[in-house]
Design a protein that fits this description.
alpha/beta, Rossmann fold, globular, binds S-adenosylmethionine
Length: 217
């Protein structure tokens, strides 16, 4: 556990996930229902291309693959080499030929095409970085679906939920800044978001202006 800084701290994040990479999948098991709901809100069609930002060990890939099929594409962007190594092993184990993994901070990643959808699953540090959001939004097609999910403060009287959020956040993000509405920088760039929240966890979704409402190629 590290003391949080006032904005995302790349070196601290690299250290945090170097240590966590081996046990990460077990730690995240409790959030699987949220992952399912978040990915369902992407409304992906067969053949869609999706960006998985801060993809970690690739825990979202299997659900994404079920929706997009072998003609679809996944680009996983992850700055931690240790987390990405786990993602690489997962891709090899499944024999997925349609996954591109980029070892880069999202803000500097060179993305090979414009995508139909973007997923930010428990990636608070990325969501609080306007440069990172800008790089993604520039690589989305009109009408692309965007979904973010993660931790958020509840009402001040909800001590139990906020205690859980604080403990989980100290373990997994480098800045508590913006935990009241983690999606706010994203909303600046994609427009109003539909937000559901419960027990210290939110899911926020939106559509990049100018499309049909489904993330389909
Ligand atoms: C809590 S994990 C979430 C991983 C995955 N999205 C999931 O749902 O299991 C957050 C991930 O974001 C990555 N990360 C944090 N800041 C990043 C950045 N600026 N660019 C790329 N990855 C970043 C971390 O290395 C870590 O793997």
């Amino acid at each position: 556990m590290n003391l949080p800084s006032t904005s995302p701290d790349r070196q601290l994040a690299l250290k945090q996930y170097r240590l966590r990479s081996r046990f990460y999948d077990i730690e995240l098991a409790v959030f699987e229902p949220i992952r399912r709901k978040a990915i369902a809100r992407l409304n992906l069609g067969k053949g869609a291309a999706v960006l998985d930002l801060g993809c970690g060990t690739g825990l979202s890939f299997e659900l994404l693959q079920q929706d997009i099929g072998p003609r679809g594409r996944i680009v996983g962007i992850e700055q931690s080499p240790e987390m990405l190594e786990q993602a690489r092993s997962r891709v090899a184990r499944h024999g997925w030929a349609n996954v591109t993994l980029l070892n880069a901070p999202v803000e500097a990643a060179i993305i090979p095409f414009r995508a139909d959808a973007a997923l930010y699953h428990f990636t608070h540090d990325i969501l609080r970085n306007r440069e990172a959001i800008g790089n993604i939004v520039r690589h989305l097609k009109p009408g692309a679906r965007v979904v973010a999910a993660g931790l958020t403060w509840e009402a001040p009287w909800n001590f139990l939920a906020n205690g859980f959020v604080l403990m989980a956040a100290l373990h997994s993000v480098t800045s508590l800044e913006g935990l009241g509405s983690p999606w706010s920088y994203l909303a600046e760039q994609v427009g109003e978001m539909e937000v559901t929240r419960s027990g210290g966890v939110y899911i926020a979704s939106a559509q990049v202006p100018g499309g049909s409402g489904a993330a389909r190629p």
